[in-house]
Amino acid sequence: MRGMPEQGRVVLSFGRFALVPGERLLTEEGAPVELGARTLDTLIALASRPHEVVGKRALMALVWPDVTVEEGSLRFHIASLRKALRDGQDGARYIATLAGRGYCFVAPVERSTDPSAALAPAPKTHFLPVRPTHMVGRSEPVGLLAAQLPASRFITIVGPGGVGKTTVAVAVAHDLLDAFDGAVVFVDLGVLNDPAMVAPTLASVLGLSVHSDDAAPGVIAYLRDKRILLVLDCCEHVIEGAARLAELIFTAAPKVHILATSREALRVEGEWVHRLAPLALPPDDARLTAAAALTYPAIRLFVDRAAASGARADFGDAEAAVVSNICRKLDGVALAIELAAGRVAAYGLEQTATLLDQRLALQWPGKRTAPARQKSLNATLDWSYDLLSEPERMVLRRLAVFVGPFTLEAAHAVTAIDAVQVLNAIESLVGKSMMATHPGGPGMRYRLLDTTRAYILGLAGHSGERAELALRHAVYYRHWLEQTTAEWLTLSNPAQRASNLADLNNVRAALAWCFGEDGHAATGIGLAAAAAPAFFAMSLLTDCQRWSQRAILALGDAAPEGRQEMRLQAALGLSLMWTRGNSEATYAALSRSIAIAEAQGDTLNQILLLAPLHVFYLRTGDFRTAQHYAARVADLARTTHDPAAIALSRILSGYSLHFAGDLDGARRALEAALRPDPGDAPSATLQDDPMAAPVLTLALSAAASALARTLWLQGHPAEALRHVDQTVRDAASADHPVTLLVALIYAIDVLLRNGDLDDAEAQIARFIASAETYSLKSHVVLGRCFRGQLAISRGDHETGIEGLQASLAALHSLRYGLLTTAFNISLVQAYAATGRVRQGLVLIDETIRSVETNGDFCYLPELLRLKAGLLRGLPQPRDDEADLCLTESLALSRQQGARAWELRSSIDLARRLAAQAGPERARAELRPVFDQFVDGAQTADLTTAKNLLASWGQAAGQDSIVQKDVTASPHAAP
To answer: N or C, fewer C-beta in 10 Å, the chain?
Structure first.
């Protein structure tokens, strides 16, 4: 109990006393009460479960979790506790002893919480199976684990297959829902067969996108400050992966609590093992009465399940002996008992016992050292399988091809049996406990228990049938993907994704078989092509990359060009762009997909695939080549009359025009893309292609953020900030990490240039955290560059220079050059502020040459202005060259319509004029430019201009200085 983390300051009040478990404090009417450590642990254990009987063994395990003690020690501390509470005096009763059962805290307890001590927020929605409603014989371990887990943090429930580990874990999780404020996440690892998929599966359940080969760092980054109860169910199939991830979470995320179930201990740091014993059994006593037998959980479970299956409810002394024998032979394993009880309605109690003897006597000698899955449970399933009719066996064998839940439609298609026969067989199998129902999505789903599926797959003599089943399974999921993927594009949160993620387990299994030794590669190629959009829609980019690569390899060098290869190459290129960056492999895949589209004369796919290539060149800093691809897309889009294609072409054009310095053209194109012409009538559209969804989604987010920066440069800061707010809010609500990062790039840029440094700091932190969580290396470095810019903007030049120089070098190694010029501008400003004029001049000249080569001319007015300042800052100022640079800056900013740059250059020129010709001449230069800003936003530059105009007005003896409203910015960080 010591060190128990609390969700806020929990106070348990009873009588004159108040107990704060998290602070290990007991007070009486406000005064502290001195108690020994073990006595206090005893009180916390009992008061936390008022009016419930706590068994002596359970209580000793709570108070002495790490040592074995005699019962006398417990009696001593109970006596000490009664004395401290003055139990029994003046009619006060707190602790009752129940002979042979344990102790109970009988006083009324009021529980209150002080929310001021609450921990960091965590998800408020739990993802749990429904709470067991007929749990038998497990209340004691459930109570024990629910009390121990907050203190121990990491418990693995260990026991043989079918003993009820998952049932207990689910019940414990439901008991702790309030303590974790609903932040309880259940992860079923039983559907996996690859330890490497443990971390990606947890990432998917948490709603995280996987963008690298190792999802664990992203999971850790997300969980690091969260208070969550994480239930990892059925770890034994993937124990290496589960153990590694559990240990990483335990050590790196101190507020996360882990409850695992496994047939063996994980054997890692921090783990406490709780061995879940089989249900308690009666002794082998012929005189056992029915009443006495029903006090044992194994007997109660058998009787309950037999009655539920429709068996006669008679249970007298004679039946008690038979049922006791059955339960003993089944070793108290809950699943085996349920399977046996389910036969009673069909065969009667005596015949069930006879069948049990015939099938299991030799295999169940009563030794508990034998592995349960191979001995006890396997034998039970052997017997249960033999009790099925041949049609039921055939259906069960064929359904074993499914991994996890499946629909009736899938069962009909894959089993290739008459639909009525399948429906009847499934109904019977559910009734006989050979299958479980699994509610999810719009209709009921069904699922073989993991042990049942493993047993069926282990049957000999059906290899030919299995190959046919696997092929039909792969073909079904290919058709299913082709028909349903478009519906997934709006699904963004874990609850909505749950059923589709389960189906993707079947897709992965089918792909693994297709590309396996005895698979069918041609079917796998088609399945991988159909799966790629689905993996994108669910943000499973590593899956998209892996299976696209595998399918392309299967195509072979001599494969004819076709739509499948085109889609696979496109999927590979897009996924590589985010998981591996701007590599040659990314370029090669995108180029190959475009070549196929061109060879086939497929205009819409040329448009769709040229867009990522345009982005590729923007990200590498080659703006001229990017503009070339934007022009190609525009030419193609004009021939289609397709609204989506036209919108995409406008976005690419707007982006390129922005960097080229044509701000008016950029604004027109971007606004047209974001507000389509009503006359653009729908047709056979680009949007019909599922691969278009991620491209269009990212493009629209980029358009909105680029428009915000365009508006800021044009001198509309308030409008730009409104766009920043809306764009970031929209991206965040979509719950799609890449979209949010795209929106934040220019949001941060605008905030920094505007001088909204606190808002910029918040969004930079958000940007870096998201990039780290989703393992986007280039964007992590990009965020650090923003952090360097922020330091420089705040006057911490040395920190900013050091951070920016290191981060720019890292960006260069990653071939990411989209914002290199902007970052160089910040470095030049820091060099100038710290007197490193010559270093600044070298960098400014290199940057100007780069702009002239690469084509991001939108920065040129600012670069020329900064160069003018550096030339004047030399030991021997070069004023003539500086005047020429400043004149060029003003002319170019006016040519581009970049009022923001024009204002900065005018401020510099006005200051020079004030020194040379007086304040009146300076005001005459600056005032007309200042007056162009009409939307009332307070930017750092406008504030500077206003103050200068005011000071010069006073110097000239003028009363009316500046009437412009530059009130506080309406911007508030999302």
So the answer is: C
Strand order across the beta sheet in which 229-233 lies: 184-188, 229-233, 257-262, 154-158, 272-275
- Residue 767's alpha-carbon distances to 560, 746, 928, in angstroms, are 43, 11, 38
Residue 277: name the closest of 205, 368, 195 by CA: 368
DSSP 688: G
Same domain, 261 and 133: yes
Q: Which amino acid is at 915?
A: A
Q: Say yes or no: 126 and 99 in one domain.
A: no
Query: Is residue 3 a contact partner of residue 151, using CB atoms and an 8 Å limit?
Result: yes
Bridge partners (DSSP) of residue 435 are 448
Number of domains in the chain: 3
Q: In this structure, is the dihedral angle defined by the CA atoms of residues 361, 363, 369 and 373, taken in order, positive or negative?
A: negative
Residue from 39, 45, 49 nearest 62 by CA:
45
Average pLDDT over residues 112-121: 45
Q: Is residue 350 part of a domain?
A: yes
Query: Is 896 contained in some domain?
Result: no
pLDDT at 118: 33
Coil vs helix vs strand at 229: strand
Q: How far is CA 79 from CA 12, 39, 95, 103, 226, in A?
A: 21, 9, 10, 12, 40
pLDDT, tens digit (0-9, with 9 covering 90-100), for 203-216: 878 877 666 678 88
Q: Which residue's structure tokens are 């009021």? A: 110
Together in a domain, 65 and 141: no
Record the tokens describing residue 819, joined without a space: 């914002």
Residues 144 and 229 in one domain: yes
Yes or no: say if 81 and 35 are a contact pair by the CB < 8 Å rule.
Answer: yes
Structure tokens at 509: 């299994």
Question: pLDDT at residue 857 above 90?
Answer: yes
| Residue that finishes a domain, picked among 386, 404, 427 | 386
CA triplet 695, 701, 705: central angle to 5 degrees? Answer: 140
Shared domain check, 128 and 105 = no
Query: Tokens 């809010």, residue?
Result: 729
Q: What's the whole-number mean pLDDT along residues 662-678?
A: 87
Confidence band (pLDDT; 50, 70, 90) for 523? very high
Residue 371 pLDDT greater than 60, yes or no: no
Sheet holding 31-32, edge to edge: 31-32, 25-28, 17-20, 9-14, 110-114
- Work out whether the CA dihedral 615, 619, 620, 623 comes out positive or negative: positive
Q: What is the pLDDT of residue 439?
A: 64
| Domain limits for position 102 | 9-116
**Nearest Cα to 123, choosing from 30, 255, 235?**
255
Quick check: 261 and 295 in contact, CB under 8 A?
no
Residue 49 belongs to a domain with what CATH number?
1.10.10.10
Compute the chain's Rg from CA coordinates.
35
pLDDT digits (tens, 9 = 90+) for 163-186: 788 889 999 999 998 898 888 999
Say whether pLDDT at 558 is over 60.
no
Can you give the CATH number for the domain in which 213 is found? 3.40.50.300
How many other C-beta atoms are found inside a 10 Å radius of the C-beta of residue 292?
16
> What's the chain's length in residues?
974
Question: Which of these, 253, 185, 256, 244, lies nearest to 215 by C-alpha position?
Answer: 244
Cβ–Cβ under 8 Å, residues 129 and 186? yes
- Residue 498 to residue 126: CA distance in whole angstroms: 12
Angle at 76 between CA 72 and CA 79, to 5 degrees: 135
Residue 578, domain member (yes or no): no
In a domain, residue 722? The reply is no
Residue that finishes a domain, picked among 369, 386, 403: 386
Does one domain contain both 262 and 324? Answer: no
CA–CA–CA angle 105, 111, 114 (5° rounding): 145
pLDDT score of 950 more than 80: yes
Same domain flag for 333 and 229? no
Query: For the segment 586-609, what is each residue's pLDDT rounded down to a tens digit?
Result: 999 999 999 999 998 888 889 988
Residues 90, 181: one domain?
A: no
Sequence-distant (6+) residues with CB within 8 A of 880 are none
